[in-house]
Design goal:
Layout: H1 4-13, E1 47-50, H2 53-57, H3 59-75, E2 79-80, H4 91-95, H5 99-115, E3 120-123, H6 126-135, E4 144-147, H7 148-157, E5 170-172, H8 186-194, H9 230-239, E6 245-248, H10 251-263, E7 271-273, H11 274-281
Length: 282
């Protein structure tokens, strides 16, 4: 019953908040981000930045998207977004069991990407990353897909950007669909090391033993009715290491850990996306 309104929102507006689909690109207008199809062709860009629902509609998540845009511009990367043409990957609804709706969303997005001749995609959302890379080939969608931490890592290695070592005591919470599901443990750590003045602390439960933030599997939209909330438990595990900030690389992890830290009365320990830290270090 908790998921019915979420499914309805995805079905009508292709996002879990049910906000108008044609406003997906509004966050990027003040930065002058190019929109694919509006005078910009796939041959004109290096990467399509697939934004996803969270960074399109949530004000907190939009900060990470804007930071990533700043990094791409600083590095001279040619990119564009889909803007109002972007639809949800449907990852959340498949995890929650609504296979029919997932396939409807997936086929629609594949058609859009095919019409625009998209071949290379970068995204800040590990859920979208996993779906586009591993599930969309089933529907004819075959792309080179990278996560934004992988691209940032590449840009630093190629000296396209040169961030300062500006931070101390930043602990990294790894998203499930970047780490355990896709085996990417090192790129985010290399990026964090490049902007840290010290050796970043680690969780006791880390890498393949790392815990979910509590949002995965569609749980972002459902209440936990028994026991301690997962995001609070994960926040407690972070605070055991006395960090000055918590870094992550997923918009949903950032929201969940922010709320977990707040419930523990520790707003003095901010939760930041790695892209935000890198943009600040530039």
């Amino acid at each position: 019953q908790e998921l019915k309104a979420v499914f309805d929102a995805y079905e009508s507006q292709s996002n879990p908040w049910g906000l108008p689909a044609d406003t997906r690109g509004d966050w990027a207008k003040e930065q002058g981000v190019p929109v694919l199809g509006d005078g910009v062709q796939a041959s004109d860009i290096d990467w399509l930045f697939y934004v996803g629902s969270a960074q399109s509609f949530d004000a907190r998540a939009q900060k990470a998207a804007k930071a990533f845009v700043k990094i791409l511009v600083a590095a001279g990367v040619r990119f564009a977004i889909l803007g109002p043409r972007e639809g949800s990957t449907g990852e959340c609804v498949r995890r929650a069991g609504n296979e029919m709706l997932f396939q409807t969303l997936a086929k629609s997005l594949v058609e859009t990407l095919a019409a625009l001749e998209v071949k290379r995609i970068v995204t800040c959302d590990p859920h979208a990353f996993n779906s586009l890379a591993n599930e969309y080939p089933e529907f004819g969608g075959r792309y080179e897909v990278v996560h934004h931490t992988q691209l940032i890592d590449r840009l630093i290695a190629e000296a396209k950007i040169a961030p300062r070592r500006a931070f101390e005591g930043v602990i990294y919470h790894e998203p499930c669909y970047l780490a355990r599901h896709n085996g990417e443990y090192e790129a985010p750590r290399r990026v964090l090391a490049a902007i840290s003045r010290d050796t970043p602390p680690e969780f006791a439960l880390t890498r393949d033993k790392a815990m979910c933030c509590g949002a995965g599997g569609g749980r972002m939209w459902m209440e936990e009715h028994t026991g301690k909330r997962i995001n609070v438990l994960r926040a407690e595990q972070a605070l055991e290491r006395a960090p000055k900030a918590i870094a992550t690389a997923c918009p949903y992890c950032a929201l969940m850990l922010r709320d977990g830290v707040a419930q523990l009365g520790r707003e003095d320990v901010p939760t930041r996306d790695i892209a935000e830290l890198v943009a600040e270090a530039l």
